[in-house]
Design brief:
The chain is of the alpha/beta class and 151 residues long. The protein is 30% helix and 37% strand. The chain has two domains: 56 residues; 89 residues, Immunoglobulin-like (Sandwich), CATH 2.60.40.420. 15% of the residues are buried. Bound molecules: copper (II) ion. Copper (II) ion binds next to loops.
Length: 151
């Protein structure tokens, strides 16, 4: 980790140096580009531009999705996510108490009381349509279900 950070800082510094040199001596941009390419291939698959280096350091996104649970529904009742996407599900209970289950994915948010929230994080690595439901009392039968579509 530390080594990576040092390498990135070095790469950024190198890029700044190169762009300065480019500005001072515009007649040889191809030479500078070549050197830049060598530097980047030696130290990972980062793009030779400074912007590319910044992109590489951003951790992969976690998408936050809030689901409201009430009597007897989920809102939204249909969720569409991309396969491989990291999802942070926040269950917000607005009355009584509800939980959240997707059996096929082994996902469960335990019973959450009115006015409380609970979360679960997962990676949608299996494509398909999965039912989510509330296992409290007869809530599922009364229509507290929804669909997670992973595509
Ligand atoms: Cu419920």
């Amino acid at each position: 980790m530390v080594v990576g950070v040092i390498a990135l800082v070095g790469l950024i510094g190198f890029g700044v140096l190169l762009s300065k040199r480019n500005n001072e001596n515009g007649s040889q941009p191809s030479e500078a580009l070549q050197k830049n390419d060598q530097a980047s291939s030696a130290s990972a698959q980062t793009s030779p531009t400074v912007a590319g280096v910044e992109d590489a350091t951003i951790p992969s996104d976690v998408r936050t999705v809030e689901i409201e649970a009430g009597s007897f529904y989920y809102k939204p009742a249909q969720l569409r996510v991309k396969k491989g996407e990291k999802i942070k599900l926040i269950l917000k209970s607005v009355d009584m108490m509800h939980d959240f289950n997707i059996d096929e994915l082994g996902l469960k948010i335990p019973i959450t009381k009115s006015g409380s929230t609970a979360t679960v994080e997962f990676t949608a690595d299996k494509s398909g349509t999965f039912e989510y439901y509330c296992s409290v009392g007869q809530h599922r039968l009364k229509g507290q279900v929804g669909k997670l579509i992973v595509e």
